Fold each of these.
Amino acid sequence: MKTSMKISIAAIAVMGVIRFALTIAGVPDSTVKYFSMTAIMIVATLYFAVVSKTHKERLKAAYLLILPYMTIEVLALGYTWASGRQTIFHAQEYSFGTSIMVHTIGHLVGGLTWEPLFGFVVMEIVWFIYAGGRRLLHADA
């Protein structure tokens, strides 16, 4: 695994832990929402879309980028479920009114299926645009 992937995974995980710690400490959701794992994932997705040499590498990157997010999300939802204490991870705007059980299972299933596949599709689109632009400019690979 490349150092850049390790750093990306660590950054997503650390941001998730910070987000969890802030919500447990009672910081308002209106503040905690700016500590975003998604923002880091978007930057990493764009980066790996361009630097990954093959479709297989992009697919692997998509799964690796989702794993820390899914892990933190499921653990935090598990905490919310077990303790009954509200956290930002099960806030109305993120849970779409579903129960904590449905929300937790949804993240677990989604994190192993459609979420990384969606990231892969985004990477493929970005790569296609990037590669097409390079060809138009006659840049060397």
Amino acid sequence: MSLPSLITFPQLVRRIRQEILLGQRTIDQQRALVYWKVGKYISDFILHGKNRAGYGEKLYEHLSTDLGVGAKTLERAVRFSREFSIQTPGSELKWSHYRELLAITDKNQRTTFQRRVIQKGLSKRQLIETIFKSGHIPIKFFN
């Protein structure tokens, strides 16, 4: 995409800012989809070995070492894939939103907060403040 030859500096800044924001949003949405898929793969794999004691715990440790990803992150990804349905890469939520929503154990409350994020376009910080102010979860449970 080329720019017209007669563009002002403020127009240039505005266009660049728009592209950067669009790129960041796309990356954040893709990150959520990636973690959902990772969680699904691990979850399906664990189901095949469900009769073995401690299978999941050892699996997280081995995957963490082999992939260079924290075991807690992998466990969170599995929980994420089990708790949320993501059909398309165009999800309105970022991975950081999902991480905070996973701290809410009541599914109805979690759905309510998820809708607020979508309707009001809340940032992660705004979501945390909304949950905290509602009194549903003590702040210590947040990531």
Amino acid sequence: MVEERKKEVLDRIIELADKLDKNGTLDLLEGISEISTDAITYLTDPRILKIWANIAYLLHILEMIEPTIVSVMGNNLSKHLSEELKPEVFREPPKLGPMGIIKMLNDKDVQVALGFIFLFLKAFGKTITTSGKQLTEMMDMMQKQFELMKQQRKELGI
């Protein structure tokens, strides 16, 4: 009975391994198993995990913006950047002095871009103000809680 059960289990393992091999999963698992300990250590470093968490949060923010707007603007930004940023531009980057900046302010596209930048700055300023209030309230609550804990420890003689 035990031998028959072992045979069934081995048959299932072989069948599963065959499926994994056919769909490429076995190769993937083999590749993953060859990742060095250093790479795993690096990927699990708290600083790297924090970076990934921040990237995920930024993606979450983008996700909340109207998808059509993000898609259309992203596509057009990519198109126009590739038109403007040719390899030659990097060989001799344009230099812009104070008078050049003033001249650029007459450009319609620059004016529209500045308008959007100022909309972003306004939203960012509101964010800083709101966040500052919220963080101040949180710190005040934490301070009160800390004082209460100190008082309780004092009463308990700790």
Amino acid sequence: MESSAIAAAKDVLGLFGVILACGTVACVVAKRLKVPDVVLLLVAGVLAGPSLFGWIDVGVDTPLNQALLVFGACYILFDGGASLRLGVLKNVWITILVISTVGVFISTIVVAAAAYQILGISVLTAVVAGRNRRVDRPGDVGPHLSAGADL
């Protein structure tokens, strides 16, 4: 007879296996179709999730969800660092500096002003909305650096 801890561990490992299998298949298909892998990863998640096939049902407030988020963030940062070429960084460091300082400030002001005018929300709420609308994830910035290297 299995203990509840062993049964829980088997469930978690099974979910990881399903997630990795679905993700791997999605990436292979995306490469063959020459579409961004993110698109098919999203489709695979919808198909495998509780709304359709029900293979994966991870609650938002569960430790497994937190583990998946941490693993995903670690992978994105590792992949971004592993694929970064210092020669490219030398050529675009000024752009990165401006985007990460002045660009964030300008986009915050523009989005906050638009949210205040269009949505009619308070100034403080509009500024918070503006501040949260910025590009700073490696998955967002990396493709722009790669495109700049080809110019």
